[in-house]
Design goal:
mainly alpha; Four Helix Bundle (Hemerythrin (Met), subunit A); Ariadne domain-containing protein; Ariadne
Length: about 160
């Protein structure tokens, strides 16, 4: 019994800490993007600051989502075991948010790198920006829904 409680605590704590570390790393990614990458992209693609704002916005969304996700693990830890349906909804919402966030993060970090490389073709950059914009907006919506559900005590479902 005590081991189960400890294991449960460790599970939530590790995810809390992991998201905090990821948030701090994302902040470093934002700073690098602002200090180095955006200037390279302006020169390479002739893009204006406004056209590249989508990249900064994506990083800001990633940072905010990591913060929300971090604290959602505290909420999840304190959800009573007797609230089975609420726990299922919470797990579903959290899983959807994590999945969307990972897609956004991959695009903002890894896919952007290909457009920063000297030998890469310059074609497709506009499509990349549109993809990043779409991922940023959809991730924002997922997280707004999670926050709203948590603020309302997951009241969309009746506990059983």
């Amino acid at each position: 019994m005590a081991k189960d409680h400890l294991d449960r605590y460790v599970f939530f704590y590790e995810r809390f800490v992991g998201n905090q570390k990821s948030r701090l790393e994302s902040d470093k990614g934002l700073q690098k993007t602002k200090s180095e990458d955006l200037a390279k992209l302006r020169v390479r693609y002739g893009s204006s600051e406004g056209e590249l704002q989508v990249i900064t916005d994506a990083w800001l969304q990633i940072i905010e989502c990591r913060r929300v996700l971090k604290w959602s693990y505290v909420y999840g830890y304190y959800l009573p075991e007797s609230e089975r349906v609420k726990k299922e909804l919470f797990g579903y919402l959290q899983g959807e948010d994590e999945s969307g966030l990972e897609r956004l993060h991959k695009c903002a970090e890894q896919e952007l790198k290909s457009y920063l490389q000297e030998n890469d073709a310059t074609e497709g950059f506009d499509n990349f920006r549109l993809k990043l914009l779409g991922l940023t907006k959809s991730t924002q919506t997922y997280f707004e829904n999670l926050v709203r559900a948590l603020e309302n005590g997951l009241s969309d479902v009746d506990s059983q």
